[in-house]
Automatic annotation (TrEMBL):
This is Ferredoxin. The keyword Oxidoreductase applies. InterPro entries: Nitroreductase, Nitroreductase-like. Belongs to the nitroreductase family. Residues 2-154 form the Nitroreductase domain. The keyword Oxidoreductase applies. The lineage of its organism: Bacteria, Bacillati, Bacillota, Clostridia, Eubacteriales.
Length: 173
């Protein structure tokens, strides 16, 4: 994927609405697949540290399975994605979380129109705010929090129908 296309995605994402029009969303773009791959073992280290501390058995098992998959050579964290885009902002701004998520969602929707595949990097996002080695690798400035990250690339498979969804939970008044 070209640098110009990544710039185009960020440019569109910056037009997302923000609280009080503060426009405090910061973007970190990992263009190099090797840079993306070097983040995975850090998330795995965090998962190994967290698994024994998590009281919920299902969640602890999930964390353990990530590490086991990694030990077998499988990247269940960033799935070999060639690019990663992270949004972050000053952690003490009340609307920062919503602003970042909305901006990243705009980017994600636009990426699909450009033929790109995306997937939110939830484990990386969770680890980014609490695991210092990952914070450093991500280059998060002091006082900033990661509010989301999306893996990007051209999809290997083309799907011809949308995934099934539950009926909407709507209250009509």
């Amino acid at each position: 994927m070209s640098h110009e296309l990544l710039e185009e995605l960020i440019d569109l994402g910056r037009y997302a609405p923000t609280g009080s029009n503060k426009q405090q969303v910061h973007w970190t773009v990992f263009e190099n697949a090797a840079e993306v791959r070097r983040l995975v073992p850090l998330v795995i280290d965090w998962a190994r540290l967290m698994a024994p501390k998590i009281p919920d058995q299902a969640t602890a098992k999930s964390m353990e399975s990530l590490a086991l998959a990694w030990d077998k050579g499988e990247d269940a964290i960033l799935r070999g994605a060639p690019h990663l885009i992270m949004v972050h902002s000053q952690g003490d701004i009340p609307s920062a979380h919503a602003d970042c998520v909305i901006s990243l969602t705009y980017l994600e929707l636009y990426a699909a129109s450009k033929g790109l595949g995306t997937c939110w990097a939830g484990y990386l996002t969770s680890a980014a705010n609490v695991y210092p080695p990952l914070r450093e690798a991500l280059g998060l400035p002091e006082g900033h929090r990661c509010f989301g990250a999306v893996m990007l690339g051209y999809p290997q498979y083309k799907y011809y129908r949308r995934p099934k969804r539950n009926a909407p939970l709507v209250t009509w008044r």
